[in-house]
Design a protein that fits this description.
binds coenzyme A, 161 residues, nine-stranded mixed sheet, alpha+beta, Aminopeptidase, 9 strands
């Protein structure tokens, strides 16, 4: 079993180690990091999962971003320790954080990932959204947290300054 908590300052390096394990340290070369580097994540939405043995076994972070001055919630990274994958932990991290995002009045969320996994949560491939290159357009996914909130939101994704 596992429990979800808000990521605290003291969890930072354990979360980084988990992401290194799941993505390799070359993750920093991914285009998504151009939207994160030098900007702070949204603390209220960054969650960790701990096992019964108090080990950090999963984490999700979010950054603010914008398209044409409209605020976007940018999901990622998310990772679950290989030993704990396939037990619903990824789903719990996503569902719980998305619920919180709605409560915090975020309107739309964007991410880069495999549609085959994320569509079960309501993510769909987005058209007309330009990410820092190189990004496979088929992996640009979005979800409305409020009806029609993606309507007319098109263009380049920028960090939220
Ligand atoms: C993606 C990840 C967070 C999912 O966490 P998880 O706890 O294993 O996920 P869940 O238990 O909620 O769901 C497991 C299901 O998702 C499927 N799944 C997991 N990753 C998938 C992917 N990239 N593409 C398609 N299906 C995937 C599994 O095959 C499994 O399928 P099943 O329900 O038919 O058995 C986890 O596999 C992980 O950390 N992977 C490495 C890092 C990564 O790729 N992160 C996402 C970057 S966008």
């Amino acid at each position: 079993m596992f429990e979800l908590y808000n990521e605290k300052k003291e969890d930072y390096w354990d979360v980084e180690a988990l992401f290194d394990l799941c993505f390799t340290p070359s993750r920093f070369a991914l285009s998504s990091y151009r939207l994160r580097e030098g900007y702070s994540p949204i603390k209220d939405l960054c969650l960790i999962a701990k096992s019964d043995e108090d080990l950090l076994v999963g984490a999700i972070r979010y950054w603010p971003a914008e398209i044409d001055k409209k605020r976007i919630l940018f999901l990622g990274p998310i990772a679950v320790h290989p030993t704990y994958q396939g037990e619903g932990l990824g789903a719990a991290l996503i569902k719980n954080s998305i619920k919180r995002a709605r409560e915090l009045n975020w309107k739309r969320v964007l991410m880069v990932g495999d549609q085959i996994y994320y569509r079960r949560f309501g993510f769909r491939k987005m058209d007309g959204i330009i990410f820092p290159p190189p990004t496979n357009p088929d992996r640009i996914l979005g979800m409305e947290l409020e009806d029609f909130s993606w309507q007319g939101v098109l263009g380049e994704v920028c960090p939220f300054r």
